[in-house]
Model the fold of this input.
Amino acid sequence: MNGFVGRASGWVRIGVLALLWGSTFLWIELALDALSPVQVTFSRCVLGSAALLAACRRSGLRLPKDRRVWGRVLVAAFFCNALPFALFSFGQQSVDSGIAGVLSATTPLWSLLIGVVVGSERGLRPARLGGLLLGFAGVVVIFAPWRATGSGGWAALAILVAAASYAVGFVCMGRFLVGRGTPTLSLSAAQLVAATALTAPTLPAGGLTPVEIGPITLVAVVILGVVSTGVTFHLTYRNIAAEGATNTATVGYLLPVVSVALGVVVLGEEFGLRTALGMAVVLIGVGLVRRQVRPPEPEQGPELGPAPAPAPAPAPAVAVSAARRAPAGPSRRRGTPPPGAGSRTG
Done:
């Protein structure tokens, strides 16, 4: 029962994270109507960090003080926040939000590829290798380099690099930050603060231009920063702590469903046959990548045969030394006949 509840809660976290994360592409698209990519990136980092800092203060938590932790936070903030946020904002100037979500679903594929390169994925099975190749083939179908002209090809490439950057960031968060004594809320707040500091120097490149923000753009920016960045990023940290970086990356499987549905319903984006075919190929590929044999758990002894008998506990050292000092037979005085000698008959 506890295992079922744990799996159910895990799926609930994944589902909520997919809904919030998948809607990010819609809010970016709406925010770009009035803001530049640099302004969108910086505003979501500022609003997201402000929301998490307020949550930390309400919970009585503080930001990390260790310099080594902050050094790791800066690296994770670059790969998981500053760089992908900027690339998504740049790419969605020319790429629809639905296709951006489909291309972002390649994060699990990049995670596997990074694992193969660094050596953490050994003994790659044919099914997973085939899924890796199939997934990238689906990306090529969506990307359609033979049809891309102008900035569209570069925009799609930027989104692919952003998806790969997410994979690197998840690995950094899972290996060097989670499970080392710092609460996930403090880590997520610190990382968005670091992302804000990394993004601020880019403001002169189009981020200081005066803009007129309408009600729709304002709502989109606030939701993008507070919910789709602050809340979503904290849920990502919690999920990495609970299930690991690789399993958290699988939330990308559901992003195309959310992003494409919102793009078609809200923005009236087209959903052609080529995009549908590419999305299906990508999802089949990532499904094959997730097919892996789980190692048997030691608690499941009956399935693996009878468990070996436990080894006898060693005798205490005092008892062993006493036994060594004691004679092999019963003690008797010199000249005393052994027991039973008088009862012998000739």
